[in-house]
Amino acid sequence: MHTIQYEFHIINQKNFFLKAVLYGRMENNMKDNFRILVAGGDMRQVYCAEKLSAVYDTYVMGFSDESVPEKISLKPAITDKDKFYDFVVLPVIPLDNNGMITAPFCNEKINPNEIKRLLKPDGIIFAGKFNDKLSEIFEYSLW
Q1: Confidence band (pLDDT; 50, 70, 90) for 32?
Q2: Would you state the pLDDT for residue 67?
């Protein structure tokens, strides 16, 4: 397994910069047709989704309607299509004590295997801290 380090930078409201470092080689990708899923987390995730949705096809899961401020309009996740998302943004602490995606603003549990099903085979997971359980679930998707 190769180790790849991805860095995600929001340049401005219209562009983000994804930098992949592999064996000292850098590849940049600035496209605007990505499908991004922001799953679970706290209000930082809501504001992250809002910024991304200004330009990219961005969806959210793990937030009740009451938890999202009225001025923010976010698209609910499309969950009936396998391998739909290019990127998934998980919370800083992605799994709770029961191994589910941390989603304090939602009454329903989010199973990480559901996220894996929705992610394209070459999709990228962004998360803060992760443990062996999360690495095991996403196999080569998590760097």
Answers
A1: low
A2: 82
pLDDT of residue 137: 86
- By C-alpha distance, which of 80, 1, 87 is closest to 38? 87
Closest residue by Cα to residue 117 from 96, 98, 101, 97: 101
Distance CA 35, CA 44 (A): 19
Beta bridge partners of 76: 60
* Tokens representing residue 91 in the block: 């919370």
d(CA 121, CA 85): 9
Which helix or strand (DSSP H or E) is residue 138 part of?
A: helix 132-138
CA dist 75 and 39 (Å) reads 12
The 3-state DSSP class for residue 14 equals coil
Q: 46 by DSSP, 3-state: which?
A: helix
The tens digit of pLDDT for each residue in 54-80 reads 888 999 999 987 888 888 888 899 999
N-term to C-term CA, the chain: 11
Q: How many residues does the chain have?
A: 143
Angstrom distance (rounded) from CA 1 to CA 139: 10
